[in-house]
Design goal:
alpha+beta; 13 helices; 20% helix; single chain; five-stranded antiparallel beta sheet
Length: 692
C-alpha cells in the first residue's frame, strides 16, 4: 500500500471492496452501529417504521399477478410470511374482494426446513400447461440464484420439487424451456474454459437433457468473453408454435439475435444493433428500435419507432420482408412498454411524461389503433399480457392517485376496474405541478412538484428532489404511500426530476448523456434544484436529494460538484469509484453508458466526475447518508464503503448503513424495506425539518 491513504489512486482502500473480508466487515459494523444510534435514536424513527411496515405488509395491497391456464399466479409477502408465498387462484375468484388462494410454495417454511436464507427470484413454467416450473431462489437477495425444478401438476398441497429434476447451481443463469425434458441454458459452466463475460454473465448457451449432468450439456451458441451476456429465448407465433434462438448482447445497448429454424441453418434476425424484439403478433415480429434504420432501401425508420415485419415469410426465407411502421412518437412522446395479447398489441406511450395505453390491431388495410380509456394524467400501463391469453391486466396510478388494477378483454375492448389500493395518506390537501427548468446548455428539463396546496413560497419548505438519469429508464408519475405518509403529510415537498439519461422522451433523451457527454445529466439535476429555489419553493438550507444505483452516482456527483446546493443527500446502492467500476461485479457491462476507464479520453472525463476521486478536504460538505447491501452482487458495496472511508479520513461527517441481505434492492423482505424507508426519512426530517 502507498503511504498516503488520502490518495484515491492508491490501493489503501481496496480492502473495502472485499464482501466478506474481516477488516472490511469490522469497519461496516462500526459504521452501522454509529449511524443507527443516531437515526433509530430519533423520536420519529419508531413511528416512521411502524407506518412504513403497515403500508408494506397491508392485506389491502393489490396482489399483482399473471394469468396462466385459468389461474392468476401471485407472489405475496406480509408480516406472517416474511419471505413470502407463491400462490394462485382461479381467474373468476381473483376479481373478488377476498379471493381464496391456493399456496404452491411457502418460502418461510422452505427456508426453515433447509436452513437456508432463500429469497424468491421468480418462476419459469413450461407452456401451455404451465405445471412444470423452474423456481429461482437467491441466497439473501443476490442476483445470482439457484434454479430448481418444481411441479404444480397435482395442485398446491402436492406441489413439490421434482426428485432428480433439473437443479442448476447458483449463478446468474438464463434458462428457457425447450420441452418437458430439455432446457436451453446460459450459466457458469465451470471448468478451465471461460464461460462468463468480463461483466460476470454467461456467454455460452447449451442444451441440457433431463437426467444429464451439466458437463454433458451440448453447446448450441457461443458469444464472446468481451460481450455483456448471451442467452436463449423463445418466441411464440399466433398458432402456438414456439421458436427458439439465442441473443448476444455485445454491449449493454446493442444485441444480435439468431433464430434456430426447423431443419435449416440458424439465421440472424434482421434488426439494427440497438433494437429489442417484443414478440410475434398477427404473424408480425414486433420490435422497438433505438437507432435510425434504413434496411435494404426501406424506411427510413427513426430511433424510437415501433416496427414489424411478416414472421412466417422471414422464417421461410431467412430474408427481411417488407417492414411496417406501427407507431412513431412525436418529439414529446416515447414508447414505455409493449404487451401482446391474443387479439391486440398493447403499447404504453408517454406524452410529456404522462403515460397512456394504446391498443393496436392489424387488418387488410394496415394498423389501426385506439386509446384504452384509463384515467388520465398519471401512469397507465400494461401489468400483464400474454400471447396465449385474451385477458390483460392494466394499471393506473399517479403521485396522488393510489394504484388501481383493471382487466382488459382484448377481444371486446371491455375494461373493468377490479382492485384498488387504499389511500395511505390524505391527498385532498395536495396538488401536483409540472414545470420546466432550463439546463446549462439551454435544454428544457421537465419536473414534477408534489406539495400541499397552501404552502408559502418563501423558501421555507423542506424539499426532496429525486433523480435517476440513466439507462433509458423513465421516471413517470407513481403513487408511494411511504413518500406520502413519511414526507408529504409531514409538510415536505417532493420533486421528481425528468433529467436526460432517462427514457422520458425516447432514445435521444437517453443518448444525450452517454459517456463523455454525461455532464449534461448532472447539469439537468442542478438546474431543477436551482429552479425550485428560484421559485422560492425551498432554499439551499431546506433542500435534499435522493437517488439509487445509477441515481446513487448522481447523488455522489451532486455531493462533490455542488455541496453548497444541498443540505441532505441520500445515496443508495451507488456507483462512486468510476475508475474501477468496470472491474467490480457487473460493472464492465455498463461501459456503453459511462465509458471505458482504460480509454484515455474517457478515463480523463470519468476522473473529473468520479465522486471518490473528487473529495476535496478543503471543501465543506453536507452530511451525506449512504445505503448499500453486503449481498449486492450487481453494484459492489465497496463503492459506498470507499467514499465513506475517504470522508472519515478527511473529518467529514456522514451516516452509513449497510444491510447484510437484500442484494441490489438493499432489502430482502418488507420488514427490511420498511426499516430502510424509516431510516431515510428520519435522516431527511432531521436535516431539512430540524436543521440538525
Amino acid at each position: 500500500m502507498t503511504s498516503n491513504p488520502l490518495d484515491p489512486n492508491s490501493d489503501a482502500h481496496l480492502y473495502l471492496e472485499e464482501v466478506e473480508g474481516a477488516q472490511a466487515l469490522d469497519w461496516v459494523r462500526a459504521q452501522n452501529e454509529r449511524s443507527l444510534k443516531v437515526l433509530e435514536g430519533d423520536a420519529r424513527y419508531a413511528g416512521y417504521y411502524e407506518a412504513a411496515l403497515k403500508i408494506a405488509t397491508s392485506a389491502e395491497r393489490i396482489p399483482y399477478g399473471s394469468i396462466r391456464g385459468g389461474y392468476v399466479y401471485n407472489f405475496w409477502q406480509d408480516e406472517a410470511h416474511e419471505r413470502g408465498l407463491w400462490r394462485r387462484t382461479p381467474v373468476g375468484e381473483y376479481a373478488k374482494a377476498q379471493p381464496v388462494w391456493e399456496t404452491l410454495l411457502d418460502l418461510d417454511a422452505l427456508s426453515k426446513a433447509e436452513g437456508a436464507n432463500w429469497v424468491y427470484k421468480g418462476v419459469n413454467c413450461l407452456p401451455p400447461e404451465n405445471v412444470d416450473c423452474l423456481l429461482s431462489l437467491s441466497d439473501g437477495g443476490k442476483d445470482a440464484a439457484r434454479v430448481r425444478e418444481y411441479s404444480i401438476a397435482q395442485g398446491g398441497a402436492k406441489a413439490a420439487f421434482v426428485a432428480g429434476g433439473f437443479d442448476i447451481p447458483e449463478a446468474k443463469s438464463s434458462i428457457t424451456w425447450q420441452d418437458k425434458d430439455t432446457l436451453l441454458i446460459a450459466t457458469d459452466w465451470g471448468g478451465d474454459t471461460p464461460s462468463l463475460t468480463e461483466s460476470g454473465y454467461p456467454f455460452v448457451v447449451k442444451r441440457l437433457k433431463r437426467g444429464e449432468a451439466l458437463g454433458q450439456a451440448v453447446e448450441v451458441y457461443r458469444g464472446d468473453v468481451k460481450d455483456v451476456a448471451a442467452s436463449a429465448f423463445a418466441l411464440e407465433d399466433e398458432h402456438g408454435k414456439r421458436w427458439f434462438g439465442a441473443s448476444r448482447a455485445e454491449t449493454f445497448f446493442t444485441s444480435s439475435y439468431v433464430l434456430f429454424r426447423d431443419g435449416a441453418e440458424p439465421v440472424k434476425i434482421p434488426l439494427p444493433e440497438k433494437a429489442s424484439p417484443q414478440g410475434v403478433f398477427a404473424d408480425t415480429l414486433i420490435a422497438t428500435i433505438e437507432e435510425d434504420w434504413a434496411p435494404e432501401g426501406q424506411g427510413p425508420f427513426k430511433s424510437g419507432d415501433l416496427i414489424g415485419y411478416k414472421w412466417s415469410e422471414f422464417v421461410a426465407t431467412g430474408k427481411l420482408p417488407k417492414v411496417d411502421l406501427v407507431f412513431r412518437p412525436t418529439p414529446k412522446q416515447a414508447l414505455q412498454g409493449v404487451g401482446i395479447t391474443k387479439n391486440e398489441l398493447l403499447v404504453n406511450i408517454s406524452d410529456n411524461v404522462v403515460v397512456k395505453v394504446m391498443a393496436y390491431r392489424k387488418g387488410p388495410s394496415g394498423w389501426t389503433s385506439k386509446e384504452v380509456p384509463l384515467p388520465p394524467n398519471g401512469s397507465a400501463g400494461v401489468i400483464f399480457a400474454d400471447v396465449e391469453e385474451a385477458t390483460a391486466f392494466l394499471g393506473f396510478d399517479g403521485y396522488l392517485s393510489p394504484d388501481s388494477l383493471f382487466t382488459y378483454e382484448s377481444a371486446s375492448g371491455a375494461l373493468s376496474q377490479i382492485k384498488a389500493l387504499p389511500a395511505w395518506f390524505d391527498a385532498s390537501s395536495m396538488v401536483v405541478d409540472q414545470f420546466d427548468a432550463t439546463s446549462k446548455d439551454g435544454t428544457k428539463v421537465p419536473y414534477f412538484v408534489v406539495r400541499k396546496k397552501d404552502i408559502k413560497y418563501d423558501g421555507s419548505n423542506p424539499t426532496l428532489v429525486y433523480g435517476y438519469g440513466g439507462f433509458q429508464v423513465s421516471q413517470t408519475p407513481g403513487y408511494s404511500g411511504t413518500v406520502g405518509k413519511l414526507w408529504l403529510e409531514q409538510g415536505g415537498v417532493y420533486v421528481m426530476a425528468n433529467i436526460r439519461g432517462g427514457g422520458e422522451f425516447g432514445p435521444a433523451w437517453h443518448q444525450a448523456g452517454l459517456k463523455t457527454k454525461r455532464q449534461v445529466v448532472y447539469d439537468d439535476f442542478i438546474a431543477v434544484a436551482e429552479d425550485v429555489i428560484a421559485k422560492k419553493i425551498t432554499s439551499k438550507e431546506k433542500l435534499g436529494a435522493m437517488g439509487g444505483s445509477n441515481g446513487g452516482l448522481l447523488m455522489g456527483v451532486m455531493f462533490t460538484q455542488r455541496p453548497d446546493l444541498f443540505r441532505a443527500i441520500v445515496c443508495q446502492v451507488p456507483l462512486l469509484d468510476m475508475l474501477r467500476y468496470h472491474l467490480l461485479l457487473a460493472g464492465a457491462s455498463w461501459m456503453d453508458e459511462y465509458g471505458d476507464p482504460d480509454v484515455p479520453e474517457e478515463r480523463a472525463f470519468l476522473e473529473k466526475l468520479s465522486p471518490y476521486h473528487n473529495v476535496d478536504p478543503a471543501k465543506t460538505y453536507p452530511e451525506i447518508y449512504f445505503e448499500t447491501s453486503t449481498k449486492d452482487d450487481r453494484v459492489h458495496p465497496g463503492h459506498a464503503r470507499k467514499l465513506a472511508k475517504r470522508l472519515e479520513e478527511t473529518g467529514t461527517s456522514f451516516l452509513y448503513y449497510e444491510n447484510i441481505d437484500g442484494g441490489h434492492s438493499a432489502a430482502a423482505n418488507q420488514r427490511e424495506a420498511a426499516k430502510r424507508a424509516a431510516l431515510e426519512f428520519t435522516y431527511l426530517s432531521r436535516k431539512l425539518m430540524d436543521g440538525k
